[in-house]
Amino acid sequence: MRDKKMRHFMSSVLLLPVLAGCGAAVPEQTPEQIRAEIAKIPPPRPGLWEAHFTLTEFSASGGPEGADERMRRELEARGRLGQVTCVTPESAKSAVEEGLVRYDGAFCQVQSLRVKDGGYDATLACEHDNGVVATVELGEAPPGDTVRSTARVTGTLKSNPDARFTYAAEQTDKFKGKCPTE
């Protein structure tokens, strides 16, 4: 039973390298203000992108015994593996908004968004269909061939509000050229 609880805890939490929490949170800006800020963010350059992230802070409590260390190891491993994505000209147009509203597989509500010089700071409240509820604070530099971003995630599980986690990560996305299908 303990092993089953740990697997549920881990699968619920690990589906988010930078996941978040939705629901009753009240946005700091109106939807119109947020849309106007999103419109200021330049879309990513179409082509092949490779992303790697580094875990810079981690803490977890209240979950099954050993779950916190396992979560840390899996997040670190996921960061080393990286992720390759092909951004098409069509997907580039909606990439910024999609990335904020459907952040890492979660359904998110943008609480605040401030754009400056093409980069931005955002706070998201998201809920994943696996029961993870969290707040994500993002910061992203202006787009170019290398984009650096930071995230701080604080969350819990709907099924176990005593299971809490916090982590911070830095991500670097590098443009690699044309997509293989081009």
What does this structure look like?
The protein is of the alpha+beta class and 182 residues long. Helices cover 28% and strands 43% of the residues. The protein has 4 helices and 7 strands; from the N terminus they run ααβαβαβββββ. It has helices spanning 2-14, 31-40, 67-81, 89-101, and strands spanning 47-61, 83-87, 107-116, 119-127, 132-140, 146-157, 160-177. It has a 7-stranded antiparallel sheet with strand order 2-1-7-6-5-4-3. α1 runs parallel beside α3 (67-81). It is globular and about 45 Å long.
Write the topology of this structure.
Elements: H1 2-14, H2 31-40, E1 47-61, H3 67-81, E2 83-87, H4 89-101, E3 107-116, E4 119-127, E5 132-140, E6 146-157, E7 160-177
Antiparallel strand pairs: 1-2, 1-7, 3-4, 4-5, 5-6, 6-7
Helix pairs in contact: 1-3
